[in-house]
Specification:
The protein is mainly beta and 169 residues long. The protein has one domain: Immunoglobulin-like, CATH 2.60.40. It is built from 1 helix and 15 strands, in the order H-E-E-E-E-E-E-E-E-E-E-E-E-E-E-E. The relative contact order is 0.20.
């Protein structure tokens, strides 16, 4: 290797090393239990439901880790623990779903301030029974193996769950 190429090679090697060292995932916390792969698909009227927030809650409240995911265009979510570790610890979980949309609240810019010009209405696009751990009928059991599960949650409804008055913002 000639003298001109040596510094370029060293610089290239250092850049590659820096790039790949920044892509490492945070190490698992010492008390994180063994995780098992879990994919959940949500359908409404047998059609994949996109952008549904899925949260899993341990029936015995012994799990301190947040567990969940968001469905993609095929209605499937790869469930993660603590927002970054793929998989779910073993146990029996309640499955809570949420998907919302809002309307109203168009913004009017006046110099530096922004004012809301109309009432904001927030709608749930899943039945209210799926919104809370105490009312959801959905459960999933992770028994020391990977799980793939589909839940059909019926007709897509638009249920008003909150109204925000622009004067209260």
């Amino acid at each position: 290797m000639n003298q001109m190429m040596k510094p370029i090679f060293v610089l290239f090697f250092l850049i590659v090393l820096i790039i790949f060292s920044g892509c490492q995932q945070e190490p698992h916390p010492a008390d994180l239990p063994k995780l098992y792969s879990c994919k959940i698909t949500i359908t409404q009227d047998k059609v994949p439901a996109e952008n549904v927030q899925i949260s899993l809650y341990d029936n015995h409240l012994s799990n301190k880790w947040s567990i969940g995911g968001i469905t993609n265009t095929s209605g499937t979510a790869v469930i993660q623990t603590h927002g970054q570790f793929s998989g779910v610890p073993s146990g029996k979980f309640k499955v809570v779903l949420s998907k919302t949309e809002s309307e109203g609240g168009s913004e009017v810019n006046e110099s530096i301030t922004t004012q809301k010009s109309e009432t904001i209405r927030i709608y749930s696009l899943v039945d209210k029974k799926y919104l809370e751990e105490s009312t959801t009928p959905l459960e999933i059991n992770i028994e020391n193996k990977s799980v793939v599960k589909t839940f059909e949650i019926g007709t897509a409804n638009r249920i008003l769950i909150r109204t925000i008055d622009p004067g209260s913002i």
